Here is the input.
Amino acid sequence: MCTLDTLFANNRAWASQRVAEDADFFTRLARQQSPRYLWIGCSDSRVPANEILGLAPGEVFVHRNIANVVVHSDLNCLSVLQYAVETLKVEHIMVVGHYGCGGVQAVAERRSTGLADNWLRHIEDIAISTKRGSRGTATRAAPRDWSNSTSWSRLRTSAGPRSCGAPGTAASASRCTGWCTTSPTDCCGGSA
Here is the structure.
């Protein structure tokens, strides 16, 4: 396991390498970011937005939370969304899920996660709304049905970019995307 001293040394080495490759790297980066993309993704440490998109620092504006949930009551996410669209002028909003998400798995398994249960309740609400009983009563869809349903996309974008933020905020971006694939190789022929 790395110590903080190791992490600081790694950061200094990374910064030195950037300057060796491009003397103006940090000067240019400090001026102003101008990303074309807003990434709304999971907090999972295995999903580094810049790296998996092949983008450099400053090329993607990132917001992360457990299970990449976008809801109308999350002022943090709404502020990021509005800032990205109105100030940074991003062109694309991506709500990106990943395989093996612990938050989604906790809901699927009905496993308590403590305080995060309050946050994950948004996913549970979508799971319930994906399946209705014969008399219109709410029942919970089986997790295996989530990925086979168009509602799986709703799980990832429920009350999402097209209905969040100040009126018209997301509409100002040229494209709002809920990335959802049925297999890890569906996206660009690679694995997720």
Summary: Helices lie at 4-21, 25-31, 49-53, 75-87, 102-108, 116-129, 143-146, 151-157. The longest strand covers residues 37-42. Strands lie at 37-42, 60-65, 92-96, 131-132, 138-139, 175-179. Residues 146-168, 177-192 have pLDDT under 50 and may be disordered.
